[in-house]
Amino acid sequence: MESVSPVSRTRSLGTARRGQGRGERKRGAAGIVRAKAALPARPGNLVHLGRANRHGSNVQGTRRTRLQAAKSHREKLRERTLRESSFFCGGGSGAGGIGSSPRKRGGVVAQAKPDFGDRIIACVPYLLPLLDGLRYGKFFFMEFPQAYVLLAPLQPLIKAYYTLPFASLVVFFGLYYGIVQNYNFSRFIRFQAMQTILLDILLIVPSLLENFLLRDVPKSGAYLQFLITSYNFVFLYVAVCFLYGVAASLAGEQARLPGVADAADRQVM
């Protein structure tokens, strides 16, 4: 029996293993080729799938943008509604004002009414147009002297107002700089004061017409009747504004006098 050297045995084993590795690699490559041939490789489908994915993402992004825009629009409408409700309910930075916290009643934002002290202070400025409008009531009191009794509680104030020099100017500028421009008071008070100042300014117009345009017209006949009617109308207008403003202020409501309320809104912040 022939003896095999260890070196020959090692070489033959290496050759066998190398041949086995080459066969496995060939079989593996052939399997990959067959697997690729079996797959439905369609590049067009992949392109269409990518386009569909991109289109879907664009649609979702557009939808998300629209939802965000609708949400922002709803928030703006809600803020605008709150501002309008605060404006129409009246009030200012104090009690019952815009700065006060709103309370919901049945889904509607309701502003707290001003306290009793603010209501009393808001009534005081209405004395200015009443005192200046008394001179237009001379024909009315001549026809209805009983109505003069209603002014009995104000007699000391009326006497001082018409006796002291520059009393009307002092009261006028006192209301404007002491109340309207004083932000320590609530908007409820400042708005009422501004209305009375504008109403008092309106009372200058009839006086200017009488003193400059109708000064040389004889006060008799039709002109006298027109003068009496005009005086009575102005006095009754001022009296009604006074009663309405005081009643609304005591009730905690914001009175809006015809002819001056819109202008007062623009002047009072």
TrEMBL record:
InterPro entries according to UniProt: Tic20
Membrane-spanning parts: 160-179, 191-209, 221-247
Keywords, alphabetical: Chloroplast, Membrane, Plastid, Plastid inner membrane, Transmembrane, Transmembrane helix
Ranges where the record places region Disordered: 1-30, 47-75
One family name in Pfam for this protein: TIC20
UniProt subcellular location: Plastid, Chloroplast inner membrane; Plastid, Chloroplast membrane
Function: Involved in protein precursor import into chloroplasts.
Name of the protein: Protein TIC 20
